[in-house]
Amino acid sequence: MASLRLDGDLDLVSVPYLVEALSAMPALFRTTVGRLETSSVDRPTHVGRFTPREVMAHLSDWEPIFLSRMQLAVSDPGVTVPVYDEGDRATELGYSGWDVPSSMANWASARAETVLWLTSLQPQEWAMEFLHPERGVFSVTRQATMLLAHDVYHLVQLEEAGAA
Predict the structure, then answer these.
(1) Predicted confidence (pLDDT) per residue in 101-111, tens digit
(2) Domain 12-163, CATH 1.20.120.450 — does that match?
(3) Which are the contacts of 70, defined by CB distance < 8 A and separation ≥ 6?
C-alpha cells in the first residue's frame, strides 16, 4: 500500500518517528553532558569546533531560528530567510560564557515548542518551502530532518568530549 508522500523520502508513516526523535534529543543531551568532567566543558574536541558549553549555547540559540524558518515556509511559502554565520554569532553572543544548565533548559523548552508546532502541521504543510540564500530550497520536512541530523552531529561531538 502506497503512503502519502510529504516531501522527498518522508511520508506520513515516518513523521511520528521524526517527531519522537526530535522530542527525545534534549534528554539524550542532558545524559551526555551530565557524564562530562567539569574540565572538559570548556575544551573543544577538535580545532575550530565548539566546546561542550558552546554546543549547548548554540543549540539554545539556533532552535528558535530553525523553527521560525519552518513557520515562514508555511505562512509565506518561498520566502527567503536571513543567513547567519554560526561562528560570528557565537562570538557576538558570547557562547563561551553561557551557563550550561540554563542553555540546556532553554533549548529543551524551545525544542518542545518546535515539536508542538510540527505536530500541528497538516500533511501538505510538510512540503512547504523557504529559500536559504546559500543552501537552496528547504521544505519543512528537509529542515526538520536536518535539525535531527544537526542534533546527532553535536551529540557525537559531546560523546567525543567525554572520551577525551
Answers:
(1) 999 999 999 99
(2) yes
(3) 114, 117, 118, 130, 140, 143, 144
